[in-house]
Structure formats: structure tokens, C-alpha cells
Amino acid sequence: MLAEMQTRISLGPHAALGIAESSSAEQVRAAFLQLTKLYHPARFGRMATDVQRLANEVFLGIKGAHDHLTKLLGSSGRSAPMRPIADGTNKTPAPQITGPHPRVSVGTQPPATRARSSSSPIAMTPAGTAIRTTGQVPAQRRTTPLGIVATPPVAPINRPTPALGVAIPRTLTPAGTPKPNLNPSTIRYSGVQPTQTQTQPLPRTPHAVFDEHAELRTAMDLLSAKNWAAARQALHALAAKVPQSKQYRSLLCYTRGREAQSSGRAEEAQLEFQRALQLDPDLAIAKQALSEVQRRRW
Amino acid sequence: MGRVIGIDLGTTNSCVAVLEGGEPVVIHNQEGGRTTPSMVSWNADGEVVVGAASKRQMVTNPQRTVFGVKRLIGRKAADAHVVALAKRLPYKVVAARNGDAWIEISGVPRSPQEISAHVLAKMKRVAEDYLGQTVDEAVVTVPAYFDDAQRQATKDAGKIAGLTVRQILNEPTAAALAYGLQHQSNQRIAVFDLGGGTFDISILAIENGVFEVLSTYGDTTLGGDDFDRVIIDMLADEFNAQQSIDLRGDSVALQRLKEAAERAKIELSSSLTTDVNLPFIAAGTGGPLHLMRELERGQLERACKPLFERLEAPCKRALSEAHCTPSDIDQVLLVGGMTRMPAVQERAERIFGKPGHKGVNPDEIVAMGAAVHSGIMGGELQEVVLLDVTPHNMGVKVAGDRMSVVINANTSIPTRAKKVFATTEDNQSFVAIEIYQGEHELASRNRRLGRFVLSEITAAPRGRTKVEVSFTMDADGILEVDAVEVGTGRAAKVTIEASSGLTQEEIRALRQRQGQIQLR
Question: CA dihedral in degrees (A127, A130, A132, A138; nearest 10)?
């Protein structure tokens, strides 16, 4: 039962929740609640530890799918289907909750939490990104024996920033264990240039910005699930929307290459990987893939 | 598989319930009570007495009678709160080897876990007598605002008592589960839980049988005991002014005062005046002295005003974290014996703008909720499930003793969150990742949960090498942390084994000792 669900999750958020692509926010929520009743880890609380672990992963997947779709649909998720109350126990229907709903999801930072953290020393910029500026590092940091420092925020109000979200960071693509690092949440924290709506070279609303992130996340999820065809489609859509982004196109080439590779067309794959590296010489997953293909060809 | 029981391990009273035919049932103890005093005494010959029998010894055997141990469990003896508390306790609080607050009984230091285990073992026996079968699994409740060490200590207490604690459930959440089972309509509820030792406030949404905690907040140092203490101080100060004798210096007198204060407090919930009558409370130069006085509800309320004030901030905070206004709340559940006090009810009404729900028994609903949760785990209740939150921030210590939060408080669990950190020194060869829990900006002011090292990372100028730290918290609140060097994939991980201060061997030894005690 859990393994089956895991397969579904790997097919994307709609498949995970077992709903049609055109589903409304209410349908997303209803499907999530139904699955929660079946798959919440508490249901497996008396079983073996490894079953519990798996249940935990599966539920994280379900929750991730829900949170992702909820954001995509621009709904606060919970509040809409909450009303009206059926049995009339409450006389005055409470007003709908307005504003962003703070449900933290797998690898994403909700707007409310983001706002809260902006006062902390390692705050992220509104786009949910953080990069390091050497200029801001106080001297004592160098001498700390404890070794690590959070990448401090950069909030360059007047500095023009490159197009948002396009910088697929190098950090995305380590060799060896590509899977955990393929997680798009990395993008948010490590390499993406912060985007401020007022300095954004392109006229773009924060909402559009958000969608782009979400779409990238979907694409990266699909990539890490090795669902090349679906990932290609997602990236294609993304690259079409942000044509100036080399990284998206680079990723698209990489995905095509993987698709070709998996169907045995090594030559084509090699070509695509090379193209990907031309667009973004730092895309380590492409480097790795290229060396894989070349090794196999010799 | 055997039955799973639900235990509300309270500061002053405990209660056990079991699910029967889909309904939670509170089990009477051998003395006929539906709740059992959370008190343990050691007789002169070393015999252990638990519950009502121990409460009766409170006056005659004060140094060896332990109450309110929940306020010490999982805490350090040097903790400011513990120091203040210890001054007023008739039994002796000592520091264990690792600095934990332990209790010395006849020269033997004992851990709060061991003492709680006696109460849990008693509840286990109560359930076994009723069910006619052995019970070795339980859902035990704790205040929502308990931290990791306090939760783990409670789990260890279960282990010592011979119970596998299948889940540590938050008390307000448990109350909401029990209430919601009867009232399954979609609604938002606030659980206002003022017990013997702690105050918790949780905001939940019930939606198609899914109970989702939106936020939780609390004060682990505010409870009925504090109200008793106000009365004790009031009486003792007056007596001191008249007779120049401080009754708090004499453990027997203090114990009698405590009993009288608790009784007066309870009586003043239903009547406007009560008499405090303590004959022969002290010996003066001119013969025995008595303490006799009338106490009015108004006097008590005036004296307790600072305590009432402390109820408001956590409620406001919980509401704002849940993105709710008081008018969004459909029902206010009053839980814990202290919510019987009219002034407390008025406070709750003032905060939420509506009177509290009267249909639940504030002493029993938490245990009933624990039993409901056992049904969710056992599969008897298919249509109900609980999504809880983590009450504290979880993060990593970074340069300058800063706490970099990875998982925010009130995040629905299970959850996974990641953050990337950079090196602070040129050619740094390893990073030490120290994990902390708490709300303070400075890591050292929070609770340290663990530390691990990611070594042999790429040598590079500072800031160049990056490490991605990912926190995974399961539905039980158990945290797993892993760190991966970005770019090379070099990884290290650790599961935070929350430590209650007892080693596995110590727990085993205590378990054996308990087993022998029960045979006697």
C-alpha cells in the first residue's frame, strides 16, 4: 500500500493526490484530507520501524503535493472548504481568513514564515533566497571555532538583479548523490539571485514570481523522479515563459539528453548534454551525465 | 496485539482511559476514583505508595512524599524556574551527575522519570484490572509546550513502568480529539488548558475528520500550583506579621498550608467565602498557635491577578500564529481543573469573546483523547486523524552564537526543511553542526539537542564551500538531521536521540527494580 503510493507520488502532484489536472482547490484539499486519513504516519505507529519511516516519507510526499498544488491554485487551502459549518453550532459565521496561509511544506517556505524570518540574522530576501556577501561578514565570524555560518541575506534594494529564479545554482548538481541535491528547495536557499519586485527588470508581479518557482519545483521533482518526459514538458513550458534564462534551456537540454539516453540513443544524448553545458558550463548533472555517456561509448 | 491505553499523566492528578466500541471510557482506580493523585511516597521501610494513599501521607511524611514531579522532569537543577520551585518544596531537589533536577528521598537521589514511572505503573495496573489482560502499550499526554528532553523523559518513565509509549500526544490536542469525536462538524476550536503545573493554548481546525493543529503556545511554569502558592504566601505572610514565625520554614506546616490552600481554592470556585482552619500549626513561646481565617473569592482573585495576566499573551500569540481572530473561533474548550475557577473562565471569555464549552469534564477529557488516539493508531477509528505541529523552533548554531532556524515553531509535522550554510574560515576542513531547540535568538540560550561533524569537506576560501543541512521531523517529533556538502555530495547524518538524562542501562535497571516492587 505504501509502495504503491510512493509510485504515485513520483508521478507528480496530481497523480499523488489521485485527481485530474484541472482540479479545483477544493478538490485538492478534499483529496488530501482523504489520503491523510489513510496514510498519516500515526496509522502505522504500531508497525515496524522501517514501515514507520516509509509511512513518514510517503506522507511527506502527499503533503508536498497538496502544498504545491494549493499554492499553484492560489488558494489558502484550508479555509475555503471549511465553511459553512453544517450543524449550526456556531451562530455567527466567522469571516474567512485572509492573507497567506502559513503551512510549511516540504522544502518550501510559506510567505508568512518568510516574513517572520526576515528579522533574524539569516533572513532570506522576499524571493526566499539567501546569498553571501563578503562585505557583511563581521570579523568575529572568521575566528569562530564552531565552523559554520549561515549565509547571510543580501537585500540589494537598488542593485539590479538578474531574472528571477533562473539561476539554477551550481549547488544543485553535485556528483555522487544527485538525488537529495536535486531537490528544488536548494534553489531557494543557495544560489538564486534575490528578486525584488521594484528592481526587477521585467514587469512581473510577485504572484507570477511565485508561480515560476512552483513550476521549477515541479520540474525538479519530476527530474529527481527520473520522469524525463514529464520533466521535459515542464521545463519546456518554463523555458518558453522565461526565454532569457539560459539555465532553463540548459536543463531542458539535459532532460532531453536523459530521455535519449534512457531509450538507448547515446549519440543524441551526448549532443544534448554538450548543448546543456554550452548553455551553462556549471551544470554538474550534465557534466556527470556526459561523462557517463562517453564512458559507455568507449 | 494487546490494547493500547491512553494516560493523562498530570502534574497533580492522572487519569487513564481506553477505547471501547469506538468510545473512550475512563477507568476507575482501585480506590474508586476516576483520577489518581500523581503522588508517590516512600515509607520508612522503603515501601512505595502511589496515588490517594500517598496523598494521605503528605502531612505525616512530607520529605518522602513527592508531588508535582512533572514540573521537574527533563529540567536542569540550575534552571531558574527549578531553583525557585525547589525553595518551596518540602522534599529535596538535588542536581544529578549531568545537572538534571533529581529528588533526594532518605539520602537516595531519584530521577523524576523513576517517580513518574510509579504513577504510570499504577495507571497501567488500573487498566489491567479493568481489562483483565496485560497492557504494555500506551499513548501518554504531555503539555504541548514541553520540549524534546521533557518528552523523552516522559517516554523513559513509560519504559521504566513497563509501557511502550507509542505516542507522546499533546494535552490540548488530545482534548480536542475527544471533543471532536462527539462533534465532528467542521469547525475551529481553541483549547484553553490550565492544569496543575502548565498552561497550554492550541488552535485547531477540524475538517472532514482531520484534526489539524494550527498553532500552539504555552507557559510551562504556570498552573494550579502557582495559585496555591499565592494563597500559601498570603496566609504565611499574615501569620509571620502577627507571630513572627515563618510557617514555610517547617515542612510539616508547609504541607498543611498547601493542602489547606488547595482546598480553599477549590471551594472558592463554587462559594464566595471559605474558612481556613489550621489548629496547632506552630509552637509559640506562649503555647501552641493556630491559623484560622476566612478567605473571600475577591481576595483570592485580587492576589492572583498577576497570574491571570499571564494567560493573555500566549492566547494572543497562538491566535496570531494561526492567522485567526477571536471571532474565527467557533468553540473554546476549557481543560484542566483550574478552568473551574470563575475568574479563569472570565479571562478566557474576555480573550475569545465567547464563553467556554461546558460539556466536557476538564479532568478527564485529556485521557479520553489519548484513548481516541490509540484507536487511530490501532485502526479502530478510520475516519479521524490528527495533524499536529512542533511547538518550538529547531535550528543550527551559527557564528556569533546565533540560532539559525530551520524548522519554525508551529510547523505541521511530519515536515522536512533545508538550509544552506557556508564555511567561515579559509580551507576549513570540517563543519560542526550543532542542533538547538527554542525561541531565543542566541543558540546558547536554547536547548542543545545534539551535534555532529561533516568532515573532509573541500578546502576552499571561506564562504565558498557550502553545506546543505536538512531537518526531517517525523509525526512523533523525532528529528533527523543530515548535512551534504553542496557540489561533492559528501554527507553525514544524525538522528537526534533525545536524551532525558538516563542511559539505557539505567532505564533497564530501574525497570527491573520497578518490576520487583510491583510483585510485593
Answer: 110
B429 contacts on A by Cβ (under 8 Å)? none
Which of A92, A107, A181 lies at the smallest CB-CB distance from B486? A181
Q: How far apart (Å, rounded) are the C-alpha atoms in residues B366 and B361?
A: 9
Q: Are B40 and B140 in contact (CB under 8 A)?
A: no
Distance CA B152, CA B28 (A): 28
pLDDT tens per residue, range B103-131? 999 899 999 999 999 999 999 999 999 99
Q: What is the mean pLDDT of residues B399-418?
A: 92
* Count of Cβ atoms closer than 10 Å to residue A82 Cβ: 22
Residue B476 annotated as catalytic: no
B407 and A CB contact within 8 Å? yes
Give the separation between CA B38 and CA A150, rounded to whole angstroms.
45
Lowest mean pLDDT among A20-24, B115-119, B288-292, B513-517: B513-517
CB contact under 8 A, B398 and A81: no
Mean pLDDT lowest among B69-73, B106-110, B218-222: B218-222
CB B193 within 8 A of CB B199: yes
Nearest residue of chain A to residue B204 (CA atoms): A78
Chain A nearest-CA distance from B507, in A, is 21
pTM of model > 0.90: no
Of all helices (H) and strands (E), which one includes residue B218?
strand B210-219
| Catalytic, out of B100, B148, B193, B485 | B193
The tens digit of pLDDT for each residue in A164-199 reads 333 333 333 233 333 333 333 333 333 333 333 333
d(CA A191, CA A168): 7
B482 given a catalytic annotation: no
Residues of A in contact with B414 (CB under 8 A): 41, 56, 59-60, 63
